[in-house]
Amino acid sequence: MNNKAFTLIELLVVVLIIGILSAIAVSQYQKAVLKARVMSGMAIGKAMMNAMDMWYLEHGSYGYDSNKFILTLPAGAQNADGTPLTSFPTSKEKKIFYNVGNGIPLQFTFEQGGRLAYKIASDPEININFCSRYAKSVDKNSVSSSQWKNYKYCSQLQGRITCTYGSNKQKAQCERLGARYFRDGTYAF
Questions:
Q1: Can you tell me the distance from the alpha carbon of 38 to that of 96, in angstroms, rounded to the nearest whole number?
Q2: pLDDT for 105-125, tens place per residue?
Q3: Is residue 1 domain-resident?
Q4: pLDDT tens across 82-113, in order?
Q5: What's the number of domains the chain is made of?
Q6: Burial level of 94, CB count in 10 A (0-12/13-18/19+)?
Q7: Which of 2, 39, 113, 116 has the fewest CB atoms within 10 Å distance of its CB?
Q8: Any residues with CB less than 8 A from the CB of 178 and at least 6 apart, and which?
Q9: Considering the domain boundaries, does residue 89 fall inside one?
Q10: Model-level pTM?
């Protein structure tokens, strides 16, 4: 009698190899998805920053404290409740959301001194800041100590995008996205 079947050991080895390969593939896929979400948010942020720069050239200030600072936003902008936005009077600390894919919405916030903050909830949270070409230095006492690092170099990096970190995980995330070390917890693209 001629039995041509796999042994239990051979089957276990094949299952083990498939498990290892799938673990590697899933982790690389998750990294690729996160990087794609971040990069699509950076494209949206660049469009918003260009609109801010055009406003500044036309009016000479950002006018955050009035309802006169009106930007036309890239398509897909939403309020926190999911209602759509096209253009609206912006204000300092006003949050704008974008859904990209099926993940957590991307969050943008207009901040002092010609700065746009972009956050993506992940592990760790990624903090990207767009510094206007006309960014102004901000008084250290006008922002919290945790925000100061984000503002610190914006006036020196006019027209650039920065990635800030507070932990080694966030630092690694900035490096993985292609940012290069600038100084004191700040990477620049």
A1: 15
A2: 888 888 777 788 888 877 677
A3: no
A4: 788 766 655 566 788 888 777 778 888 887 77
A5: 1
A6: middle
A7: 2
A8: 189
A9: yes
A10: 0.73
